[in-house]
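Render this sequence as a predicted structure.
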Amino acid sequence: MMLPLFITLADDSWQRAHYAMIVAAGALSLGRTVTIFAGGRSVHALAKDWSGLKDITSDADLDSRGVPSFRDLRDAVVELGAHLMVCETGLALTGLTPDTLCETVSIRGIVTFLEQAGDRPILAL
């Protein structure tokens, strides 16, 4: 049995968010459960409109290079059943509201994420 994967994001880097989705999709495809916690400005990664992230490479540009787009990766992560959480404080920091988030995202605090991770490793991207 594979251990669950816990990923946390803390900044508004598009590159880190894109890579987190790659890692999550890979782990989910292997049958692992995945939880992603977005804190601080990284909450933009789990908003319907992720344009608040920094240094975005467009999905069209990625598609033209044969690289999975952010939308495709995030949709796959959702479809494969990842647990997605955003930090309450991050929402307040960015001015985002619950209705701006993807449908499957829950709003939680860091304590909830740490409680779920328990003594298992956390991958910080």
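Summary. The helical segments are 14-29, 59-65, 70-79, 88-94, 110-117. The radius of gyration is 14 Å.
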